[in-house]
Structures
1.
Amino acid sequence: MDGSQYGLDVALLVVDLQPDFMPGGALACQNGDAIVPGIAALLASRRYQTVVATQDWHPADHASFASQHAGHTPFEVIELHGHPQTLWPDHCVQGSAGAALDPRVDWTPADLILRKGTDRQVDSYSAFRENFGPRADRPATGLAGWLHERGIAEVHVCGLARDYCVLWSAQDAAISGFRVHFLWELTRPVSVANDEATRIALTEAGIEIR
């Protein structure tokens, strides 16, 4: 990519660039730390005049944690509120070091830091909607309205994890009426085994993979 600046109608969305999703963290993505230099450089370049960062921010007793369900272990799938729910290791607990935005990135260019997963009963993969109810009717976080009111028409998405929070955020951005570019090399998955399914889901949603 060249160093030119994008137009006023393009925003960058950096999803959950937090230590708990990196090697040594509670819910590590494969090589999750490898994308930090690229994202740090992208923010430092000031190519985007609107930047949003999301931050997973769970209460210690969050319903998505396997520790809250006796007899269950991380990565099992249960039914929660009538929908499948993957149970996770405790991660990104509010105020913990693992929940901080990565300190190797200068977050000064971020216009908005959106904390998600704050409701103990509801998981939140997407930056745009909670994990509750039919896809297009899930409760909104307000991000789509905030971007629309700023005149944003196109969203470029990167961060962690490629196969969960970044994918869902990209899909919901498209549903919300934005053109979406998925910055593949600036994402990493929980499991590379999901990469083919992720690409298929992005293509079906009309999302450009860069």
2.
Amino acid sequence: MNIHHAKAAATLAVAAVMGLGGCAGAGSFTTTSGDTVTIAMVSNSQMQDAIALSGEFERENPGIELKFVSLSENQARAKITASVATHGGEFDVVMISNYETPQWAKNGWLIDLSNYARETPGYDTQDFIPSLQKSLSYQGDMYSVPFYGESSFLMYRKDLFEKAGLTMPAEPTWDQIAQAAAKLDDPADGRSGICLRGKPGWGESLAPLNTVINTFGGRWFDENWHAQLNSPEVVRAVEFYIDLVREHGEPGAAASGFSECATQLSQGNTAMWYDATSAVSVLEDPASSKVVGKIGYAPAPVMQKPNSGWLYTWSLGIPKSSEKPDAAWKFISWMTGKPYIRMVGEKLGWSHVPPGSRMSTYQIPEYAAASKAYGPLTLSSMQGVDPEHPTAAPVPYTGIQFLAIPEFQDLGTRVSQQISAAVAGRISVHEALDQAQQYADAVGRSYRENQ
């Protein structure tokens, strides 16, 4: 990232938090009695499990008190980005992803965790799934470590498919899924054919939609950073997605994100859902789901480009501005270590285990038995994707469900707002993409000028 784009990222971060209203080394892992470690975390189900189990950490580390700030995805992204970019110092641990980590490491905003990991007995970074470890590294060192990892796949009601005389293909196409959604859509019974995210946010609606754009042959920019969001391929992909969710999707689709669709499927209100592989923690938990054992899993649907699933990880890092990095690492190593994974399975149930971070997770007999329907597919999906080559045609960026450029946090959010408006029927797809094209062209122009 050049200086121009690093400054742009910091500026966008400050703008994001406005919209919502010191360097330390690994050393000897010293902590001070009464240390309070403040952790900014996304409020997904696996993270709520970690908060529920955090008393175990405090009992093992009586000198450290944990303070959690739990936020929705959009709020967390904006608040964490603004705090880290401006060295605000509010947080000692931040939940980020493979989008932020390499960029922020390059900017000097994060502490290198490699020494911490090497000096922590039994932590074993080589056990992390290789694609995730690479995605969280900068110049060979890890600057955040994965809590869970995910790709994307299709989840569907096996019983409803059987009743309707449908068979899920081993490698479904989007056309086949649209046909199934039309047949399974039953508004009179309170059930939609499919649930798809329509909620604004670069990490909300754009996550599944970008994989659809990719597999339909679309791309955000050509090799020379000329915007392509109103190209025929992108128009076709977006029209398909929006037509599908408007005709056979959930009520209130324009306000539906990951959590809302998880509720729809787990409560029996939709027949299919295309989303993150990590959703199994909700769907296969008898305490929260009415459809345990009724869900089938299939690879991400494709059209032109194969292997259309995404690669994502929620990870934990330490901002350079933290004054308690040793205590922060103690917590991070607890929440991302092998013993934590086994503790979750034994205390909360094996469907709660944070998936897709460590290879050894898939070798735990109890987890292998519990995840038989979805574990192998999750692992193969994560290993089969290629963030370095996300599209059918060449592009100057990396990343599958996001573009690994600092401007995407703002650009993606703006584009997603246009998409959500089209899902709601307030504007047409062509109007949405023409406006999105203007936003993307401004970003592309800055790259062309700095080549």
